[in-house]
Structure formats: structure tokens, C-alpha cells
Design a protein that fits this description.
The complex is a heterotrimer of chains A (489), B (347) and C (414). Chain A is an alpha+beta fold and 489 residues long. Chain A has helices at residues 3-29, 62-92, 102-118, 123-185, 190-206, 274-303, 339-342, 359-362, 382-392, 409-449, 453-488, and strands spanning 39-45, 51-58, 209-213, 219-223, 228-231, 233-234, 237-238, 255-256, 259-260, 321-322, 344-345, 395-396, 406-407. A two-stranded antiparallel ribbon of chain B has the order 1-2. With 347 residues, chain B is an all-alpha fold. In chain B, a hairpin with a 2-residue loop joins strand 1 and strand 2. Chain B has helices spanning 8-35, 41-45, 49-102, 106-125, 153-166, 180-194, 199-204, 231-245, 253-310, 314-340; strands at residues 128-129, 132-133, 213-215, 221-223. In chain B, 70% of the residues lie in helices and 3% in strands. Chain C is α+β, with helices and mostly antiparallel strands and 414 residues long. Helix content of chain C is 15%, strand content 36%. Chain C has two helices and 29 strands. In chain C, a hairpin with a 5-residue loop joins strand 7 (109-110) and strand 8. Chain C is rod-shaped and about 135 Å long. Classes of the chains: A alpha+beta (489), B mainly alpha (347), C alpha+beta (414). Chains in contact: A-B, A-C. At the A-C interface, helix 1, helix 4, strand 9 and helix 11 of A face strand 3, strand 12, strand 20, strand 21 and helix 2 of C.
Chain lengths: 489, 347, 414
């Protein structure tokens, strides 16, 4: 073993220590950084010439990472859905004690009418009934507005999400290319791999993904339904946002690689990720809820119908409650899309607009033929009582609305509340569960690829010792050579 | 490796998540402890929320029925009281009439109380409550009875009928010559017709035959008023009118007695009719009271059901707050200790 | 005459020692020269025949030896074209005139034309395999070798010709579809035409009957606005696959079913999509395929593998083998004759050149990003220097003594 070789070995050891300490500082820097995975310098001994760093290794677990990505998608989907339902529930129902729901408003109207029926001559009671009726109309209008605004919000969020996906895919392309090149040339791509995993987990927030690694660390990404998102190049993800929503509006589908993946016409529908949650909210849940509101509105209008009293067989006309298509009656027995948005209390009973609230008792909002109180008696209770009975009577509803198929108006409105709250509860429970699952998987992953400060520090001490020893060795060899040179001198 | 390696990030995240979870649970528990209700009723109940809402609607319904029952009850009370007044008056009048029948100038004696009783009958029937004429049937917006006085349609019509039958006005010359039989014939036909429809409806009363019907429970309705058109009132009005409006003084004793006999019959009839009206009202009153007490029981039951759904035991909630508080404190203490635990302190 | 002999012998000794000192000087001077091989001197005695009573001192003959086969330590660098040989063998280099030499000094850098040359100006030689040709090796000669050039002369893409499924499954529980525009599943693949344009192939899977699937491939460029049906042109290829759902088949392709799809990529080359490991089991749709071919893209850098293959790494991550760098050896490497610039030429003693690839037949492997340090050991040289200094002094003493004695002899006559 010659001195020069010793010197060279000591030098290689110093260099390796340098690399090791740089890896340690990278690890410490990434201590609390999400998505950072622990790096390891691979030191290989080189017979006769010390050691060299053969590469940087990254602690990772593909299986655990896959779990995290899945959990992220599911969690994001349920969060998006839950937030939407939460918003709707807060505005249209809130605490049942506050009587904000359409069901509560209907109950109020019924009791106001009940009161009015006990004293039909009392104009104040008539006004109370009209006010309660307005409460019903406003509750339905507001609920419709909120539902449609929520749909518009979901649509806008979908646009943002699609934007994010496209940006992430563009980033992915850059990083993936760098990784392939790095892998081929054997350079340190570990930080790129971290970045790529990071992009993947961000992507999985937006849309559920599966991915596979091909030769040279080349990665292909598919949606959870199998549509190609990235294979050599990013596929196009397009979405044409709709800015304003009414009950009849059908939002556009998100199209990935030419395949519609959301909405009723989706061929390969995605099942997780924020995008899936928003699409379910926009195209399914909110539409169903709107249908229920529309059925309530139809029921209300039909209860307050005015029939021809002369026996001449005139058409049924809208009464206290009318709508944009009034005074003709809405289509019976089926959902009238958007009815809840235009339902209103007729101006004819609004004192502020010169109307007469007593028309609730007398009828005749559609002309003389429709007057119920022909005698003009102040105590004419039959019509009012009839309305109260009508509100209590069992009616049938379109089963497509997913509420009770039959029951009183309040019962149906109650079943709508049930539907919404049960959705919210189950989605909320699932969201909590998937959140926990996400935490568990992230924890498990972090325990495999994370950095432990204490471990790094003790490793640093070890590296420091090696460094000192190598330095000492160099100075010793230097001394020896010096002595040799002195001998020459 | 995986089993005995833990990352620093994992340590701090675990601490952070458990603390924030405790905080969320605590804020919920605090709300539940202070309000005594579920923090988020809708999410807490889920599919049962609809039942909660409909139960609340029922509560509102029943509460309103209790309110309107009070109103109906008050109306029935007033009507009942008025009816019993009328019965009292009619009964004492019956005695006076019996006395007057056999006294000379009985016609003169009885005419005055008859007129005032008629007046008070009309006033009674015109009684209003909250702007609602109780005896107006469903035509509650209008005084049901028009007064009987000179120039009033009822008096004009009766006078005209009298004149048409006898050829002269009541009290005019020739009245003495009216035979009891002729008078009975007049009273049974032309005069009685004045108290029958349609004359009654045009000359006396604007009330409707249909009476108010009120819902007193979710399933029950009762007639909650009596129409001034009821035959009891007609008979009574007829009796009073025949004694005050036909100028009995001018009749001969026999005819007077015929009138009186007819009037006695009428009063007696009307007293029994009034009693049956009273009985009807009484039944309605009782039904209303019963319905109200039943409703109150039901309200209690439904209230309990709503509470069972929405209420949490505040004790339990506050115990939860305490245990969460301990847990959170422990978690904070642990966080502080574990964060202090670093190899850096020993280097 | 032995006194003269003594002086001559002393002189020859001094001469020999100065030779030795000269090699030490060279060795020390080149202690940090890459690929430098230590020179050393060996002496052989030249003793004159003497009688029993008389001794004629001879002289010493110097033999210069080169420790060419003695490997130096490896120093690691960061340049991809710094090459070291671990084990036996030499790089073949040529001077600007084309004369071939051997060297172990592998610190190559590209010149203005992209030709790799080392510190001493010798060009690295290798076999050109850019066009996919197998290297045509002449085992005992230097034919077919050319100067390794890493400049990018042409932007060449490679057309896609094959694709292989890494894993593909069709969902057995999918509903039967009516055919375009309805389909069961879709995926797409990027391929390249003859001039490197990416051609996106849209692949549609139609379940036409139980266990029977039609696969149609369309050119995405023909797709309707917004993607999908109707396409402007006919399907590039249509194939019906059937699956064996028996206990033995387990959802693999039926024996009678076709196992691949072949067609010509628009503007490209004949293309075969090997679908033999496609399955139809009760799992979600997946389609993972690897295609060859690449788009023309700029050269990013080069790298050399341990078997001496030089690759060009392009911007899009593809790599192309461009040269195969051979190693040469001779039967007696230590007998190569050193030339200026750490190169050796073949001498009669060294034997004939043998060319082969790294790792083969006793040759070492090529280690990129490393350089072979000089095999001079300073301590060794310094001790040798002291040694030769002492020997020189001793020889000069012999010479002086001889001269003194001669002086005495001359003074005898006075």
C-alpha cells in the first residue's frame, strides 16, 4: 500500500463524506416538507482506491404512495361533495328549530290558513296567511337560487380544477422527461422523483388517477376509469364552463382525451377526485334536490288551484300561488323543471300592490267565474278550510324526485329534508373516514420515506468522525512525505 | 426498518392532528353542553331530519289549533251565554204573558215588554266579537238583524200583510171586529210567512243559514256558531212581534187571547228550541275543550319526540368537554415535551 | 588496465544512476498526469572476463522499464467523457495524421467539430453504430474504426414500429355496446411517423358480444372537433378479439383469436401492436403499452456505459447508441513503446494488437466519469532518488579513487 494510494483513498473518503453531509443537509431541509423522501448516499468501496458515491438512493414505497394517492382522491371527492351539500343544507334547512326549510314554511302557511279559517272575516289573519304564503314562495325561490348558484360554483370550480390538471400535466411532462434522461444517464433524479410524486398527489386531488412506471422510470398516468391522462405527452383535458345556471341547464362534461368523463353521458366516468365530487354535486345531487323543490312548488300551486265555480267547465287556473307560466296550471303528475324558481304569490292578494288579501277566502283571482264566495259572506270559511285540507291531503309526486312518492305537502317537503340531510350525513361520515384513511396512509408513507432528525444528526456525527479520521490520515501522510523530503534535502 | 423508524414529520403531524381533532370535538361538545341540543341537528339526524321537520310542523299545527280553539271556545261561550239569557227572558216573559192573557187590557200591558224583548232579541243576535257577528252564520261581516221599527222593512211588510188580510192597518178602526178564527188564520199563514223564507231573509235577517264550522283538531270539525235564522229565534221573534206589532189593545178579548195563546205556544216552542241550540253549543264547547286538552297532550308527546331527536344530555356533553379538555391538555403537554426531545440539545 | 577500468566502471555507474534519476525526475514530474505509467530503471551488470589473479571491472547497463500494465488509482470526475479503464486494455486513439496509438489517458473533450480528443491531442476511435448497425470488429486490426464524434449532425427521429402491452385488461362486466359512436373504453397511444411527428392513435374497445371485443384504432388527427366520433377517415385497423373464459383460459385471449394488430401509421412505418397478453377479467379497464420510436429532438448529452457503448441522450429522454468504443490490448503491454502524450505504439516486443469490447476476453470495463491517475508513488520515487543519489556519490567516489590512484601512479615517475 503506497502512500499515494493511501492519500487517494483518504481523499475519496473525504469526497464521499462531503456527498454524505450534503445528503444529510438535504434531508434536514426536507424535514417538514410534504412529499420529501429521505435520500441516502450509496457508498461503494473501490478495491485499492477507497470509496466512491455510486448514486443517491431514495426511500420510497410505491404501494404506500399508491394508497396515499387513492386516499387523497377519495377524500377530495367527498370533501367537494360534502362542502356543496353543507352549503345547501345551511341555506335551505339550517337548524330545524329556525324553521327555514320549505317544509317549515309550508307548516307556517298551513297554520296561518288554519287561523284564518277560524275567523275568515279577519283581514289581519288574511294578511298573515299571505305573508306565510310569501314565505313559502321565497323559501322555494331562495332554495332554487342557492341550488343553482351552488351548481354554478361547482362548474367554476370544475373549470379551475381542469386548469390545474392541465398545468400539472404540463409540469409532469417536464419532470418526467428530466427523470427519464436522468435515469438513462444515471444521474441523481431523486429530487425530480419527489417532485413528480408531488405532482401526482396534487393531480390526484383533482381527479382520481392510476399510474404505472415503464422502462427508464417513464410514467404513464390514467384516470381511475382508465382514460389516458399522460403517455409520453399530456393528453388534452377540456371543459367548457357554463357561467349561469337555471334549473333546466345541463352543465358541460369534462372531456379527457376525447372521452367525456363526467355527467350523464360519460362513457368512462371518473369516480374520485375533486372533479368527480363537483360533477356529482352539479349533475346529480343538486338536480335531484331541485326536482324535489319543483315538486313541492307544483304541489303548492295545485293545492291552491282555482276551479271554475259556474259549472261552465273553464280550465283550472293558478290561485294564490302562480308562476312564470301562469295562470295556466303546470303539467300535472310530473316534475316541472324550474317551477320552484318562478313560483310566487299572486299580486292580487298583495295589499302593497293594491291587491286584496281576502281573495284567499273568496277566490276569483281569475275572474268572476272562479269566485268561491258567491254570497260575499265575511265568514266564508269553506274555501280556506278546503285549502287547509288540501295541504293536509295526500298527493302523489313524481318518483323521479326521489322523495316520498305520496303524502301531504309537508310530508314530501320533510322527505326532501331527509334526503338532503341523509346525503350530507353519509357523505360527511365517508369524508371523515377517508380523511382518517388518508392520515393513516400518509403517516405510514412518512414513516417509510420521511426524515428523522435524530437519525440524521447521529448519522452526521458518524460522517463527521469519518471526515476527521480521513483528514487526520491526510495530514499524517503529508507529514510522512515531508519527512521524506527533508531526508532528501 | 419500517417498523422501528418514525419520521419527525410523522411525529409532529400526529400530535398536530390529534390536537386539532380534539379541538373540533371540543367545540362541538361545548356547543352541545351549552345549548343542550345537537351541534348540527341536520347532520346528526341524517335521514331522520325530515321526521324532525314534519314533527315540528305538527307541533306548529297543533299549537295553532290550540290557539284557534280558544277563539272558537270564546265564541261559543258568548253565544251560549246569550242563548241562556234569551231563555231566561223568554221564560219570565212567558209568566207575564200568562198573567196578561186573562187580565183586562192585557194587550196594553204585554205590548211594552214584548217590544223591548224583541229589541233585546235583535240586539242579542247582533252581538259581535272581534268584528265578527256571532249569529250571522257565515255572513259575519254584516249585522244579521235589522231592527223592527216604524219604516223598517219587517214592520212595513207585516203591516202590509195585516192590511191585505183585514183591509185595514193594525190598530185601525175595525180591529175589534176581527174574529179569533180570522186572527188565528192570519197568524198561521200570512203572519207566519213573514218569519219564513224568503220574507225572513229579506226583511229581518241578513244572516246565512250556513253556520261557521271550525276545525278543532287535526281530524275534527264542529259548528262553531248559530245562525240568527235558526227557528228558535224566528219563533221567539214571531212571538214578540205578534204581541208588540199588532196593536193588541185594539182587538177584542177573544181575539187577543187567540193571539196570546199562539204567542205562548211560540214562546214555549222557542224556549225548547233555544235549549236545543244551547245543547248544540254546549256539545261543541265540550268537544272544543276536549280537543284542546287532547291537543295539549299531543303537543307534549310530539315535543318529547322532537326533544328525543334533537336534545343531547347536557351532563354527558359537559363530561365530554371535560374529558376532551384533559385530553387536549395532555396532548399539548406531550407536544411541548416531545418537541423539546431532540438530539440537537445534546450535540 | 584495471585502474582505467575502475574509472570507466565508476563512470558507467554514475551514468546508470543518472538514468535512474532521470526516470525519477520524469515520474515525479508526471505524478499527477492522467494515465501516466511509471518508468523505472533496471540495471544489468556487464562483467569482463577476468583471470584468477586479476579483475577487470566491467560496467553496468541500464534498462528502462515501463510499468504500463500496473493500474493507477481512479479519480472521480463529473465529466461524462472522462473515461477510465478498470482492468486491462487501452483506448485506441489516433493523432491528427491518423496514426493509431494506445492510451489509458481517458480525459476526452470534444473539439470544435465534436471529435473527442484527450489532453495530448489524440482522437478517440470507435465503431459507428448510429444507424443501428452492429459494430464490425476486426479482431486483430484497426479497420472500420473512426473518430468518435459527439456533435449532432442530424435531427433524426425514429418511427414507431412496435408496441407491447405491459398490462391490459378489458372489463368483463361491461355492457355490450351498439358500436360507434358508443364505445366501452378508450385509450390513446403516442407513436411517431417517419419524420418524427407524433401521431396519436385513438384506440376504442367495443364489447360486441360476451367475451368478444372489437378494437378499432383511429388517427386522432381525424377526430371530430372536441375529440371522438365521427372520425374524418376510416379506422386504421379493426380487429375482433375473443377471450377464453374456461378454467384453463381464465380470461386470456382465445387460442383462435388474433393476438396483434398490424397497420401502417399514417406517414409512418408498418406498426405491430402485440396484444397477446391482453385479458378480459372482472377488473377495471386498463391499458398500459410501451411503444418504441421517438421524435427528433436536440442532443442533450452523451454518456458511456461500462461496455463502452456511447449513447446520445436527447432532450425528450430517449437515448441512442452512437458508438461502440473498443479496447485494445497486446500480449505484452509493458513492452509497448511510449510516445509523447501518454500514448503507446506497438513495438515488436509488445506483440500484435487485439481489439475487442470492454468486459470481453480479459479486458477491463470502462468506467465513465473517472480518470486513471498516474501510477507513480511519490514515496517510492523519493526513496529511489535518495538511493540513486547515494549510489551516484558512491560511484563518483570510486571514480575519484581511481583518479587519485592514477595520480599517485603518475607521481611515481617524478
Amino acid at each position: 500500500m503506497s502512500l499515494t494510494v493511501a492519500l487517494s483513498s483518504a481523499r475519496s473518503s473525504l469526497m464521499a463524506s462531503g456527498v454524505q453531509s450534503s445528503v444529510i443537509s438535504r434531508n434536514v431541509a426536507g424535514l417538514h416538507q410534504d412529499g420529501y423522501s429521505r435520500k441516502n448516499a450509496l457508498i461503494v468501496s473501490q478495491p485499492g482506491s477507497g470509496v466512491y458515491v455510486s448514486g443517491i438512493q431514495r426511500a420510497a414505497s410505491a404501494g404506500l404512495f399508491n394508497n396515499v394517492v387513492k386516499a387523497v382522491s377519495t377524500s377530495a371527492q367527498q370533501d367537494a361533495l360534502y362542502n356543496g351539500l353543507q352549503k345547501i343544507a345551511a341555506v335551505t334547512i339550517d337548524d330545524p328549530e329556525l324553521d327555514q326549510s320549505a317544509a317549515a314554511q309550508l307548516a307556517k302557511l298551513k297554520s296561518a290558513l288554519q287561523q284564518y279559517a277560524s275567523a275568515p272575516n279577519n283581514v289581519t289573519f288574511a294578511q298573515t296567511a299571505v305573508t306565510a304564503a310569501k314565505g313559502v314562495a321565497t323559501a322555494l325561490n331562495d332554495a332554487t337560487n342557492t341550488v343553482q348558484m351552488t351548481r354554478a360554483d361547482a362548474d367554476a370550480e370544475m373549470a379551475t380544477s381542469v386548469n390545474n390538471i392541465n398545468q400539472l400535466l404540463a409540469q409532469f411532462e417536464t419532470v418526467n422527461t428530466a427523470i427519464i434522461k436522468g435515469t438513462i444517464s444515471g444521474s441523481d433524479v431523486t429530487d425530480y422523483l419527489d417532485t413528480r410524486d408531488n405532482i401526482l398527489s396534487k393531480l390526484s386531488q383533482e381527479v382520481g388517477i392510476t399510474f404505472a412506471t415503464r422502462a427508464n422510470n417513464d410514467m404513464v398516468v390514467y384516470t381511475d376509469s382508465g382514460v389516458t391522462l399522460f403517455e409520453r405527452t399530456a393528453r388534452s383535458v377540456t371543459f367548457d364552463p357554463t357561467h349561469s345556471y337555471t334549473a333546466g341547464t345541463t352543465g358541460n362534461a369534462v372531456v379527457i382525451d376525447g372521452v367525456p368523463v363526467t355527467g350523464a353521458n360519460a362513457i368512462m366516468p371518473i369516480s374520485s377526485g375533486k372533479l368527480a365530487g363537483l360533477a356529482t354535486l352539479r349533475d346529480d345531487k343538486m338536480v335531484t334536490y331541485q326536482n324535489q323543490l319543483d315538486e313541492i312548488a307544483r304541489g303548492v300551486i295545485e293545492v291552491f288551484v282555482e276551479k271554475d265555480q259556474t259549472g261552465a267547465g273553464g280550465p283550472d287556473q293558478t290561485g294564490l300561488f302562480t308562476y312564470a307560466g301562469g295562470p295556466g296550471m303546470p303539467t300535472t303528475g310530473a316534475i316541472n323543471v324550474g317551477l320552484a324558481g318562478t313560483i310566487k304569490v299572486t299580486d292580487l292578494v298583495d295589499q302593497a300592490l293594491g291587491g286584496n288579501p281576502s281573495l284567499v277566502r273568496d277566490g276569483g283571482m281569475n275572474g268572476a267565474s272562479y269566485v268561491y264566495n258567491a254570497g260575499g259572506e265575511a265568514g266564508f270559511f269553506a274555501r280556506i278550510q278546503g285549502l287547509v285540507d288540501g295541504m293536509a291531503a295526500s298527493r302523489t309526486y313524481d318518483p323521479a324526485a326521489l322523495g316520498k312518492p305520496s303524502g301531504s305537502l309537508v310530508d314530501f317537503a320533510g322527505s326532501s329534508v331527509s334526503w338532503l340531510e341523509s346525503q350530507r350525513k353519509s357523505v360527511g361520515d365517508e369524508a371523515t373516514y377517508s380523511q382518517t384513511l388518508l392520515e393513516r396512509s400518509a403517516d405510514a408513507l412518512s414513516n417509510v420515506n420521511g426524515v428523522n432528525m435524530d437519525d440524521e444528526m447521529s448519522f452526521m456525527l458518524q460522517v463527521e468522525r469519518t471526515f476527521s479520521a480521513s483528514s487526520k490520515l491526510i495530514s499524517t501522510i503529508d507529514d510522512m512525505l515531508k519527512q521524506l523530503l527533508m531526508a532528501v534535502g | 426498518m419500517a417498523t422501528n423508524f418514525i419520521s419527525s414529520n410523522s411525529i409532529s403531524t400526529t400530535l398536530r392532528i390529534s390536537a386539532s381533532k380534539s379541538q373540533v370535538a371540543m367545540s362541538k361538545a361545548i356547543k352541545e353542553a351549552t345549548t343542550g341540543r345537537l351541534a348540527d341537528v341536520g347532520e346528526g339526524l341524517g335521514a331522520l331530519a325530515g321526521r324532525d321537520v314534519t314533527l315540528r310542523a305538527e307541533l306548529l299545527d297543533m299549537g295553532k289549533l290550540v290557539d284557534t280553539n280558544a277563539l272558537v271556545g270564546a265564541r261559543l261561550d258568548v253565544a251560549q251565554e246569550r242563548i241562556s239569557q234569551l231563555i231566561d227572558t223568554a221564560q219570565s216573559f212567558q209568566k207575564d204573558l200568562l198573567a196578561a192573557r186573562n187580565s183586562a187590557n192585557g194587550g196594553g200591558i204585554i205590548a211594552q215588554p214584548a217590544a223591548s224583548n224583541l229589541q233585546s232579541l235583535l240586539t242579542t243576535l247582533n252581538v259581535a266579537m272581534d268584528g265578527q257577528y256571532l249569529f250571522g252564520g257565515i255572513n259575519t261581516g254584516q249585522e244579521p238583524m235589522t231592527s223592527y221599527e216604524a219604516g223598517s222593512p219587517s214592520k212595513t211588510a207585516i203591516d202590509a200583510a195585516f192590511t191585505a188580510t183585514f183591509g185595514f192597518a193594525p190598530g185601525a178602526v175595525g180591529s175589534e171586529s176581527i174574529t179569533p178564527a180570522a186572527m188565528e188564520n192570519f197568524l198561521n199563514n200570512a203572519f207566519a210567512a213573514e218569519f219564513d223564507d224568503p220574507a225572513w231573509g229579506t226583511n229581518w235577517s241578513s244572516a246565512s243559514d250556513q253556520v261557521m264550522r271550525s276545525r278543532i283538531s287535526t281530524t275534527q270539525t264542529v259548528d262553531s256558531s248559530v245562525s240568527a235564522n235558526d227557528k228558535a229565534f224566528r219563533k221567539l221573534a214571531m212571538a214578540y212581534t205578534m204581541l208588540s206589532g199588532l196593536d193588541l189593545q185594539s182587538l177584542n178579548q177573544g181575539t187577543f187571547q187567540a193571539v196570546t195563546d199562539k204567542a205562548l205556544l211560540m214562546v214555549a216552542d222557542s224556549i225548547s228550541d233555544l235549549a236545543s241550540v244551547g245543547a248544540r253549543l254546549g256539545t261543541a264547547q265540550e268537544q272544543t275543550t276536549n280537543a284542546t286538552s287532547r291537543l295539549k297532550v299531543q303537543v307534549d308527546i310530539v315535543n318529547r319526540q322532537v326533544n328525543a331527536m334533537e336534545i343531547v344530555d347536557p351532563e354527558e356533553a359537559s363530561v365530554r368537554v371535560t374529558s376532551l379538555k384533559n385530553q387536549l391538555e395532555m396532548s399539548h403537554a406531550l407536544t411541548a415535551q416531545i418537541q423539546r426531545l431532540s438530539i440537537l440539545n445534546y450535540l | 588496465m584495471s585502474l582505467y577500468g575502475v574509472m570507466r566502471t565508476g563512470g558507467s555507474g554514475m551514468n546508470a544512476q543518472s538514468n535512474k534519476l532521470a526516470t525519477v525526475a520524469d515520474n515525479i514530474a508526471n505524478v499527477n498526469t492522467t494515465g501516466y505509467k511509471r518508468a523505472s530503471t533496471e540495471f544489468s551488470s556487464l562483467i569482463l572476463r577476468s583471470g584468477t589473479g586479476n579483475y577487470n571491472s566491467g560496467s553496468v547497463e541500464t534498462q528502462v522499464r515501463y510499468a504500463i500494465s500496473d493500474p493507477g488509482t481512479l479519480n472521480y470526475t463529473t465529466s461524462a467523457t472522462d473515461l477510465a479503464i478498470q482492468g486491462n486494455g487501452f483506448f485506441i486513439v489516433s493523432d491528427s495524421g491518423g496514426t493509431p496509438y494506445l492510451t489509458r489517458a481517458g480525459s476526452f473533450v470534444p473539439d470544435g467539430q465534436g471529435n473527442l480528443y484527450n489532453t495530448a491531442g489524440y482522437y478517440l476511435m470507435g465503431y459507428n453504430i448510429k444507424n443501428g448497425a452492429a459494430p464490425d470488429v476486426v479482431a486483430n486490426g484497426l479497420g472500420n474504426l473512426e473518430v468518435v464524434n459527439i456533435a449532432q449532425q442530424t435531427l433524426l427521429g425514429n418511427p414507431t414500429t412496435t408496441a407491447k402491452l405491459d398490462g391490459a385488461n378489458l372489463d368483463s362486466n361491461a355492457a355490450i355496446t351498439a358500436g360507434p359512436p358508443a364505445y366501452t373504453s378508450k385509450t390513446s397511444l403516442i407513436t411517431y411517423d417517419n419524420i418524427g411527428n407524433p401521431v396519436k392513435l385513438d384506440m376504442y374497445m367495443f364489447k360486441t358480444a360476451a367475451n368478444t371485443w372489437d378494437v378499432e384504432i383511429y388517427n386522432n388527427a381525424d377526430a371530430a372537433a372536441g375529440g371522438g366520433f365521427p372520425y374524418g377517415g376510416p379506422a386504421l385497423s379493426t380487429q375482433t378479439f375473443t377471450f377464453d373464459v374456461s378454467a384453463t383460459g381464465k380470461g386470456r385471449l382465445d387460442a383462435a383469436s388474433p393476438t396483434s394488430m398490424a397497420f401502417t401509421i399514417p406517414g409512418g412505418s408498418p406498426f405491430t401492436l402485440d396484444m397477446s397478453n391482453m385479458t378480459q377479467v372482472a377488473a377495471d379497464f386498463q391499458f398500459k403499452a410501451t411503444t418504441n420510436g421517438n421524435a427528433p429532438s436536440a442532443l442533450d448529452r452523451v454518456e458511456v456505459s461500462s461496455d463502452g457503448t456511447m449513447y446520445s441522450i436527447f432532450d425528450d429522454g430517449t437515448r441512442l447508441a452512437t458508438y461502440k468504443i473498443p479496447l485494445a490490448t497486446v500480449p505484452s503491454p509493458d513492452n509497448l513503446s511510449p510516445e509523447v502524450g501518454n500514448v503507446y505504439s506497438i513495438s515488436i516486443n509488445s506483440g500484435n494488437i487485439q481489439v475487442d469490447f470492454a468486459g470481453n476476453s480479459g479486458l477491463g470495463t470502462i468506467k465513465p466519469e473517472a480518470l486513471e491517475a498516474s501510477n507513480v508513488d511519490l514515496a517510492n520515487e523519493l526513496t529511489a532518488m535518495i538511493e540513486s543519489q547515494r549510489s551516484y556519490t558512491a560511484n563518483s567516489k570510486v571514480f575519484q579513487t581511481g583518479a587519485d590512484l592514477l595520480d599517485v601512479l603518475v607521481n611515481l615517475k617524478r
